[in-house]
Amino acid sequence: MSSNIDDLDDGRPETPAQRADRNWNEILQELRVLQTGTQILTGFLLALAFQASFAELDSAQRVFYLVLICLAALSAVVALAPVALHRAVFHLQVKPALVRVGHNALRGALALVSLLLVGVVAFVFDVVVGFGGAAASGVVLGAIILVLWIVVPVYVRRRGRQSAR
To answer: Which among 27, 69, 116, 117 would be 20 to 30 A from 42, CA to CA?
Structure first.
């Protein structure tokens, strides 16, 4: 194998630059999916404040609503951070570093979006059926996210490493 070929043994004969380009494109695709969902949730939350029934919320619900708005904004900012960084370092030959930052930002955005999803569902349940329903729905959705976004990937990753041996 020549010295310009990547030494990561995943069956792909690519240079470090090719790997960085491929990884960057994969991150961008994932960011697009995440950003679309975040935009829909943010739009839903912003529209709520202009509904007539919004005036009926108690002070705790209003605070919870504002926390959700902040989570939505923060998740969008974190998800867009790799794009802003890409603009700042365009043509500077730092794609591997960009991929690392993008990966970490994407993981952070997923964490924020998971909180946002649980919060939005709990908020709606709180308004519709009360605090008990909010707590139950939040715990159930949080557990589902934990299993699908953390437990299953860890399991698949371990199985993949074991089968590679």
So the answer is: 27
